[in-house]
Give the backbone structure.
Amino acid sequence: MSRLLIKNGRVIDPSQKLDRITNLLIEDGRIVGLDVPGDSGAECIDATGKIVSPGLIDMHVHLREPGREEDETIATGTASALAGGFTSIACIPNTEPPIDTQGTVEFIHHQAARADNCNVYVVACVSKNREGKELAELGQLVKAGAVAFSDDGAPVFDAELMRRAFEYCLMFDKPILNHCEVRELTRGAVMHEGTVSMVLGLAGMPSAAEDVMTSRDIALAAATGGRIHIMHVSTSGSVDLIRRAKTRGVRVTTEVCPHHFTLTDECLRSFDSNYKMSPPLRSQQDVDACIAGLQDGTIDVICTDHAPHALEKKMRELDQAPFGIVGLETCLPLVVTQLIQPGILDWPTAIEKLTINPARILGIPKGTLQVGADADVTIIDPDVEWTLDPQKMRSLSKNTPFGGWKLRGAADTVIVGGRVKFKRAV
Ligand SMILES: [Zn+2]
Ligand SMILES: [Zn+2]
């Protein structure tokens, strides 16, 4: 029998409304209980001055394998997740080939088991080959273990296909995760459409491109009773639409990425492609709306949209470079630095959006320290100050705009299924 006692940490578990300094005991990979005396003969981790959280969950990660192993593999992506404090991630199916068959879902599970880092849940395609023409075999994919559906990388643009996907998913109570972007409005665009894009002479993506599809998806979810999860919300308009839909009882949830509550389109003045992502960095008003949405609960989840691209691709001219940045190793410190330190969110609210909320949306038995739960635990150092060196990241790709940033907070020890999988070097 293996026993591990985490001593004297501030245990925060929003799933049980728990926040107090105590001991947490793990036995044979499961949570046994709190308030266990310090001398129970188990192996000990001293968590004095640290936060003991349910293992963090990132429900929006691009692992790139199969097909683009030069950008990331399941082994490197999950190592990066651990270093960022994540014990479970959900991978998005825009791989090559896309995850639209039972065989591909099984391949991901197999590679994740071989890597033996964090837990990997699979989000499978809504449409066959992500073409947006024909529904994938959703029932078969659920059987293989898919936890949700998405064509991310691209939106589900056909409204009729989306409606049928909602109806079909009612059978399994699975959410559809949509990248909301009306492509007719964003052709050739590289950044947010606004004053800055005008000054720089760059083609912009109007906020309406996101808002129109958010609105459509809310309407279709309301009409069918289906569950829509709006991915990487970035506009004040969409936050507002989601807020109002929730009050009407529509089954809508949403997520925001750290870059969308931290940076604005002003960053593009540098022409650095590490500021190019989709949806794009928006205006300060949009950043403020995302922050308000986090505060009032409109935004359920903080996720990364971890999108690794090899250096030679990302170094191209702004209009040629691919969209997206890596995020697994900067998410938690940005939450601490940008949200907790300034008093925008308290620790329990932030942890809720990184644990139990994504677990509930995906319907996975994670994100809690309840007795009997899998012992996935993230011990967070809330005060450590450090400077991000992209070359030291575990991710195979280094495309981050946060290189050189002074950050606060980091994952100190990461435990998956009772086993210590990551320990921060001091
Ligand atoms: Zn997307
Ligand atoms: Zn994405």
Summary: The two ends are 30 Å apart (CA to CA). Residues 55-362 form a domain with the TIM Barrel fold (CATH 3.20.20.140).
